[in-house]
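Example S7 (structure tokens).
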């Protein structure tokens, strides 16, 4: 008996463990979802990696400013030594004859070491400054990516909530179609209407069911889009425990943020700065370069391979000095690179100007859209209220045989249109509202 109890307990524990592991992620607000998504979004993670790459570029730019040292060594086996004929009288030999003399030794070993230090090299220092500025630019690009992802997240989040609301409408519309079909069926059974109205009512009920099914698919697609932006697999489960609430917050109906705090403008300004630094770098290539060097070496030569012997003789050599390099002419490549750098700076300046104009235009459009959406929302809310009221009245009159079936269909279509117009107005309003709040928050960072 105890074995069965233990087995049951084990199964329950395993079920609980697997259940815990498969629990869906639950989000209750846009802020909570955004916080999670910013930590897992692939684009943001890639931007952070780009920052790390630029940090390594800074480290690499420091390297030429440090001393460079290396050690080397060589060992040679002169298989055949060179031979030279020397007149014999030089060594008190018979005149007119020659004595063959070999020069060198069979084995040579030569360990050496040297150190080099750039004393004056303006290009290397400029490279370091450019690398640091590029690192700053990478950080600005990361911030720009974050702000862009925030906007995309908000739009996708609101789209999901709107689809939830639309699903509620579709379910209500299906209930209305079912009620209308029931009334039509009763009137047909009592021979008050012909089969045409009954069939049209059945068709309307099928259409309402089809719309409901389509909305369920659209809702799941919207949820999958949210998962993608948050770096979540589509196979994982998430739950959004949030409802679309339209808050009439007291915004100033204007964008108050300083344009220079906008991420896109900061990125463009940094690109202009880097372009100017590149021009300075190309000009510095015409400057002289001065470096110091020192080397030390040992050499030993033997006819027999016994370099470790105590009788082996080692001969030292060493040098210290300065090396001055004055550029004179290199085929014009430095001049052309300088002209290219100037053009790249001009491109960056034009890009900055275009982004400022584009940002100003988008801000004005956003304000116009917000004011229009705010006005439209109030109108659409009233229209939906009236359409719902009209539909209820039409159903009562149709049930009491006061109006024909076509009038009910017309009122029903007006209700469907009012629902969609309200959803669109809500989407425009909450999106514009979020964008204005996000832009105005830049000054507070």
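Recovered sequence:
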């Amino acid at each position: 008996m105890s074995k069965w109890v233990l087995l049951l307990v084990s199964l329950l524990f395993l079920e609980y463990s697997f259940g815990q592991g498969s629990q869906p992620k639950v989000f209750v607000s846009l802020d909570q979802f955004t916080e999670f998504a910013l930590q897992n979004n692939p684009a943001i993670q890639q931007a952070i990696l780009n920052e790390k790459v630029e940090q390594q570029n800074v480290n690499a730019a420091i390297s030429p400013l440090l001393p460079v040292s290396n050690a080397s060594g060589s060992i040679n086996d002169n298989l055949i030594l060179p031979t030279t004929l020397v007149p014999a009288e030089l060594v008190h030999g018979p005149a007119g004859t020659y004595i063959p003399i070999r020069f060198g030794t069979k084995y040579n070993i030569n360990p050496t070491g040297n150190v080099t230090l750039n004393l004056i090299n303006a290009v290397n220092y400029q490279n370091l400054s450019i690398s640091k500025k590029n690192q700053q630019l990478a950080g600005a690009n990361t911030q720009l990516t974050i702000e862009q992802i925030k906007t995309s997240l908000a739009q996708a989040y609101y789209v999901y909530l709107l689809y939830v609301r639309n699903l509620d409408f579709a379910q209500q519309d299906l209930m209305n179609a079912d009620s209308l079909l029931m009334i039509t069926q009763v009137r047909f059974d009592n021979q008050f209407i012909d089969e045409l109205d009954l069939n049209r009512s059945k068709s309307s009920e099928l259409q309402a069911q089809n719309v409901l099914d389509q909305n369920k698919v659209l809702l799941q697609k919207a949820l999958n889009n949210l998962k993608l932006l948050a770096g979540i697999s589509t196979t994982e489960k998430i739950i959004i425990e949030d409802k679309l609430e339209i808050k009439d917050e007291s915004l100033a109906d204007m964008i108050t943020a300083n344009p220079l705090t906008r991420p896109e403008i900061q990125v463009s300004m940094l690109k202009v700065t880097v372009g100017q630094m590149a021009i300075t770098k190309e000009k510095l290539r015409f400057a002289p370069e001065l470096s110091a060097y020192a080397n030390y070496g040992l050499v030993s030569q033997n006819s027999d391979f016994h370099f470790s012997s105590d009788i082996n003789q080692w001969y030292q050599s060493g040098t210290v000095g300065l090396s001055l390099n004055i550029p004179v002419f290199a085929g014009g490549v430095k001049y052309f690179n300088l002209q290219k750098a100037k053009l790249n700076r001009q491109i960056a300046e034009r890009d900055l100007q275009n982004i400022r104009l584009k940002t100003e235009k988008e801000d004005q459009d956003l304000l116009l859209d917000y004011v229009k959406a705010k006005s439209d929302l109030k109108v659409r809310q009233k229209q939906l209220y009236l359409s719902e009221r009209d539909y209820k009245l039409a159903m009562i009159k149709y049930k009491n045989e006061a109006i024909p079936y076509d009038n009910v269909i017309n009122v029903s279509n007006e209700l469907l249109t009012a629902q969609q117009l309200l959803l669109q107005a809500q989407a425009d309003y909450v999106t514009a509202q979020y964008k204005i709040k996000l832009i105005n928050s830049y000054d507070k960072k």
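Notes on this example. The first strand starts at residue 25 and ends at 27.
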